[in-house]
Amino acid sequence: MRITAADVIVSSPDRNFVTLQITTDEGITGLGDGTLNGRELAVASYLQDHVVPLLIGRDAHRIEDAWQFLYRSAYWRRGPVTMTAIAAVDVALWDIKAKAAGMPLYQLLGGASRDGIMAYGHASGRDLEELFDSIRHHQEAGFRSIRVQTSVPGIDAVYGVPSQPGAGEKRYDYEPAQRTALPVEEDWDTAAYLRHIPSVFEAVRSEFGAEVPLLHDGHHRMTPIQAARLGKSLEPYDLFWLEDCTPAENQEALRLVRQHTTTPLAIGEVFNSVWDYQTLIREQLIDYVRSSVTHTGGISGLRKILDFAAQYQVKSGLHGPTDISPVGMAASLHLDLAIHNFGIQEYMHHGSLTNEVFRQSLTFEDGLLHPGEQPGLGVEIDLAAAAAHPYQPAYLPFNRLRDGTVHDW
Ligand code: GCO
Ligand code: MG
């Protein structure tokens, strides 16, 4: 089966998405997600200018060969743009192979290891009343596991908390990327954050009880010793995980955190290859891998990381905010269902315009996701609907401290 066309589709229904559609001479098409939040056009160009010309005429069944060819022949290895572009090709080829086999993709990955995929939702609030309402709202929507993000006195805009709750179903959804010409500036104060967070978890535990799995995202802002202190002070509240407690380019930082706390640690949404995890997994400095299929070279890339992690009892906790497109989310769900070392899956509902562009077969029932039983990924794109929503410039925010110093966001 030969590849006859590869089309890069950039659309912006509720937010920007880059999608690769590969077509074969047997008339089978496959979709891959190439969305890199705030840097979408770099991946679109990488694909359009440097990858699409190499795909035409290739055997669509040779997925691992295509992966190794794109990774090694570029000479310049790794990096988010390269690995996201490779992911788009890899996932589109898996979609094609599974459609050709007439099976949902998870069957080709070894079949289901579980009945459904435990998902966590994002609760947030500017104060405890709003936070409790948001947690109840997520529980009513079916989520059994809840991420808790909260405003902090003394900080104007905090990651994970909408400045103004919206209306209806999505009233507590937080979308960090803004459709603005320049990145929005936010403020940060680690001391204020460290003082406030434990009291919020204490209040949540006494309101909602000991059993609900609670998660928290530190979003890369602490030094190792600050992260160690937070992990320790949260121990009484039994978190499922503390995510991205330090900027983990420095893998050694997690050793210090680990020496001081038994709060489970999750990291890796900005990583893009197994090499970013080498020390973290081998030395068992983390408990959960936070990567997505989309940013780590696709199913083939992420599976290599997760199989390595499995040898050390490190589990999956795949990245699933709305900047992972429905195509990327479907790919993650097929992998979640098949692997043995599954932990949990992040899940935010996509907006209604996004659901018009991408028709999805996933289900979410009783707190469990399932990718569905359609052959392939189970996602189809409506090209006319995609074309009706052209790209719009959008950026993630950035942080400055009170004295004007740029800080990690
Ligand atoms: C998460 C993430 C996201 C990121 C976003 C950046 O845990 O879901 O931290 O909210 O900020 O994906 O593109
Ligand atoms: Mg995160």
Write up this protein:
The protein is 36% helix and 19% strand. By secondary structure, it is an alpha/beta fold. An 8-stranded parallel β-barrel has the order 4-5-7-8-9-10-11-12, surrounded by 4 helices. Strands 1-2-3 form a 3-stranded antiparallel β-sheet. Strand 14 and strand 15 (368-370) form a beta hairpin. The mean pLDDT is 97. The site of magnesium ion has 5 residues, from loops.
Task: Note the topology.
Blueprint lengths: L2 E9 L5 E8 L4 E5 L6 H16 L7 H11 L6 H22 L3 H4 L8 E9 L2 H13 L4 E6 L34 E3 L2 H19 L5 E4 L6 H11 L6 E3 L9 H8 L4 E3 L10 H5 L5 E2 L8 H13 L4 E4 L7 H13 L5 E3 L5 H6 E3 L2 E3 L2 E3 L8 E3 L1 H5 L10 E3 L5 E2 L2
Parallel strand pairs: 4-5, 4-12, 5-7, 6-17, 7-8, 8-9, 9-10, 10-11, 11-12
Antiparallel strand pairs: 1-2, 2-3, 4-15, 13-16, 14-15, 17-18
Helix pairs in contact: 1-3, 2-3, 3-10, 6-7, 7-8
Question: What are the main properties of this structure?
Answer:
Enolase-like, domain 1; 19% strand; 8-stranded parallel β-barrel; 409 residues; alpha/beta; binds magnesium ion; 3-stranded antiparallel sheet; binds D-gluconic acid; 13 helices; TIM Barrel
Short description:
The protein contains 13 helices and 18 strands.
Structural class: alpha/beta
Bound molecules: D-gluconic acid, magnesium ion
* The CATH fourth-level homologous superfamily of the largest domain: Enolase-like C-terminal domain
CATH class categorisation of the largest domain = Alpha Beta
**Alpha plus pi helix count:** 13
Rg is 21 Å
Mean pLDDT across every amino acid position: 97
CATH architecture of the largest domain: Alpha-Beta Barrel
